[in-house]
Amino acid sequence: MNVKRSTYYYQQTSAKQNAAAKAAREAELIQAICDIRDYDPIYGKKFGYRPITARLHELGYRVNHKHVLNILRMYNWLSTYNAKGLRKYNSYKGTVGTVARNLLRRRFQTDRPYQKLAVDVSEFRYGGMSKAERVYLEPVMDLFSGEILAYNISDSPTVTFAVKPLQEALDSLPELPYRTTVHTDQGFQYQNRRWVKVLKQHRVFQSMSRKGACLDNAMMESFFSIMKREVMDDHFNTKVELIRAMKHWIYFYNNYRMKGRLKGKSPVEYRKLALQNASYQQVI
Asked: What distance in Å separates the CA atoms of residue 11 and residue 9, rounded to the nearest whole number?
């Protein structure tokens, strides 16, 4: 095959230039990922590939999530937390009070804030990771944005422990043109008359998962999975250290942790933007 000398050298030069340009773009992409991971001194380093990809798209990078995942693997930037061997907390103790119908029926999506709230309890361990060295967390999540409206951390998952963040979350809601639904599992705290009383006082619908159907509250399961992967990647020797880290992470999650389904926004940013757009539409 005969190729002109000029054509040969042109193709060689062009290939080198393309390779250099590709390497420069890759280096720029890796630097952008580093900058995103430096967003928070602790938990930014534990961002998964989905929020990083969402943030890159927001910054104008056209990159596939699989490519971002490969980069994170290459530099060993993925979380190494493994929850295997840890027994999951279960608050179900049979029918001890009111068991509500499953109104949500896994329809987690909503186009308006505060319409659907989800609540659940999970345990976090410290020290020697024994049963005596654990605390319980109950967050109240707005399914519109994933924002944690209120939460409580305690040594014991009592009814008082469970009702406190519910009361705080419902008291903080603005006046709405629609009624709110609060969804939980069938844990003993959520069947208790004190829990039901608070819901009735605020004219809130009560919804419960079916017995043994953890996917009926999948959004809370996903939240706890993310939190444990990013918080429990470190070991905490004392309860004080663990609780401090949990509070820090929840604040970080609400205000700074980017989510792909929220178009690269944090839960608080997404909620504020939605309310601003709603106000603007009412004006026009």
From this structure: 5
